[in-house]
Amino acid sequence: MESLLREWDGETVIVRYDRPTGAWIFIAIHSTRLGPAAGGTRMKSYPDVQAALQDAFRLAAGMTYKFATPGIPWGGGKAVIAIPPHFDPQFRPALLRRYGALIHQLGGLFSTGPDVGTSSADMDIIAETGDPYVFARTPAAGGAGSSGPFTALGVFTSIQVACEHLFGEASLKGRRVLVQGTGSVGGTLIEHLLAAGAEVVFSEVDEDAIRRFRDELGLKFVPAEAVYTTECDIFAPCALGGVLNADTIPQLKCRGVAGGANNQLAGPEDAERLRARGILYAPDYVVNVGGAMAILGLETQGWTQERAEKEVTESVRRGLRQLFELAAAEGITTEAAARDIAEERLSAGT
Ligand code: PPY
Questions:
Q1: CA 39 to ligand 1 center in whole angstroms
Q2: Which domains does the chain have, with CATH numbers?
Q3: How does pLDDT run across 281-314, given as a tens digit for each residue?
Q4: Site residues for ligand 1, CB cut-off 6 Å
Q5: Active-site residue set
Q6: Cβ partners under 8 Å of residue 90, min gap 6
Q7: Which pTM does this prediction carry?
Q8: Cα 207 to chain centroid, rounded
């Protein structure tokens, strides 16, 4: 734990042990260089407390780069609520209210939104005590609702840009895309892909979702053990992180990777592993900025729905094209190119 804290390059971490439930709350503030920190709240069980803190650290850094690359004036942070295994959902609202009160106490240092394990309905509960530092509440509570569809729009745009770079045209007609995870991002992405004439194959662990996409939509289901060896033009990871690693990268049979999940690379060396295999990697935080960008625009800048969609599409398209060109010109990984663009903004402070 001590070395984890010492080696992290972020600013501050707030730690709360929630005695009534046994949950640990970590709020990691990675950087406030470009503005107050914002980031989702991830709520799940972890194998141990260190793993939860490490996840908060990595996710918070991701938010810093996510905002910095397109020049969004917010800093990077993320909260993890590590609940005990077999957590009884009846204690959930009270836990979320205590968490909201903690956010309120921070006075704007950190604002939050949904992430894995939390929804807009949860944001409503957190906002009972955390107002005004809670984004993406339900429309009934005056919020902009789920960020998933906006994230999906950015992922869809990224797949088009990746195809443009790989094949010389952005059209997805006949392109085979493997979508891993069919939740609010992956599910909406699939709709866009089908409308664009792509051939979609998917992998999923939830039985109901498998039935919906395989039996009702007639899409080809790829079982978990075959995900990394399935031939496709684009692999779109839209589930959990760490899927691109020393074990999976040598197996991949895709030309490019562009998906919505956070922290897709298990480690920094995996960007080079992909490059060495000639697989075009669209960096996750550039691809999946749409959710946060749209919600912040809708809720703090008065954007309309149309404006939010236009901003997400144009900003993701511009950002990815720029970094693919930079990576090719400098002979560096796309991840390093994205990092260079973000670092430049962070050191300029705008
Ligand atoms: C993310 O993009 O990963 C998020 O954390 C989601 C989010 C949603 C709304 C405001 C800030 C962050």
A1: 5
A2: 2-63+75-141 (3.40.50.10860), 148-289+318-345 (3.40.50.720)
A3: 999 999 999 999 999 999 999 999 999 999 999 9
A4: 38-40, 63, 113, 115, 135-136, 147, 262, 291-292, 295-296
A5: 78
A6: none
A7: 0.93
A8: 23
